[in-house]
C-alpha cells in the first residue's frame, strides 16, 4: 500500500469488519470509499462487541489519541481472547503514512 486509495482498495478486498469509535468515523470511511461492514463502538458495550464478533477477522480503527489507544488495547486483548483475529496492518499503515490523529480526519 503506497497511497490512501490503495489502502481503501486493500481494506475493501479484505472483507474484514471494521471497528470504530463513532458515527463520524463511519461517515469518514464511507466518504473515502470503504465498503466493509463497520461497527461503531458508541452503540454497544465492549463486551457486546467482543461477543458479537467471536470467530471473525476484524480491523480496529480507533483514534490515535490517549483514549483511542486505551480502547484499542482493551479491544485487541478482549477480541483475541475469544478467538477473533485482529488485523493490525491497516491501523499501522495509517499511523505511519498519514498525519491524522482521528479516523474522522480521513479525507
Description:
The protein is an alpha/beta fold. It has one domain (4-101): Dna Topoisomerase Vi A Subunit, Chain: A, domain 2. The chain is built from five helices and four strands; from the N terminus they run H-E-H-E-H-E-H-E-H. It has a four-stranded parallel beta sheet, sandwiched between helices. The model has no long low-confidence stretch (mean pLDDT 92).
Topology:
Blueprint: H1 4-14, E1 17-20, H2 23-31, E2 38-40, H3 46-52, E3 57-60, H4 66-81, E4 85-86, H5 89-97
Parallel strand pairs: 1-2, 1-3, 3-4
Helix pairs in contact: 3-4
Percent of residues in helices comes to 40-55%
User: How would you state the average pLDDT, rounded?
Assistant: 92
Spatial sequence of strands, sheet with the most strands: 2-1-3-4
Largest sheet: 4 strands, parallel
Count of helix runs: 5
Total number of strands: 4
SSE pattern: HEHEHEHEH
Question: Which of globular, elongated, flat, extended, rod-shaped describes the shape?
Answer: globular
Low-confidence stretches: none
- Terminal Cα separation, in Å? 17 Å
Would you kindly provide a brief summary of this structure?
Helices cover 49% and strands 12% of the residues.
Features:
single chain, 107 residues, alpha/beta, Dna Topoisomerase Vi A Subunit, Chain: A, domain 2, 4-stranded parallel sheet, 5 helices, 49% helix, globular
Amino acid at each position: 500500500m503506497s497511497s490512501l486509495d490503495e489502502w481503501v482498495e486493500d481494506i475493501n478486498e479484505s472483507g474484514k469488519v471494521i471497528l470504530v469509535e463513532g458515527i463520524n468515523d463511519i461517515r469518514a470511511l464511507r466518504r473515502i470509499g470503504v465498503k466493509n461492514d463497520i461497527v461503531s463502538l458508541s452503540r454497544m458495550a465492549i463486551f457486546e462487541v467482543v461477543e458479537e464478533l467471536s470467530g471473525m477477522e476484524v480491523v480496529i480503527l480507533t483514534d490515535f489519541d490517549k483514549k483511542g489507544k486505551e480502547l484499542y488495547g482493551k479491544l485487541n486483548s478482549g477480541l483475541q481472547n475469544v478467538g477473533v483475529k485482529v488485523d493490525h496492518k491497516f491501523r499501522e499503515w495509517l499511523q505511519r503514512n498519514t498525519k491524522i490523529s482521528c479516523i474522522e480526519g480521513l479525507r
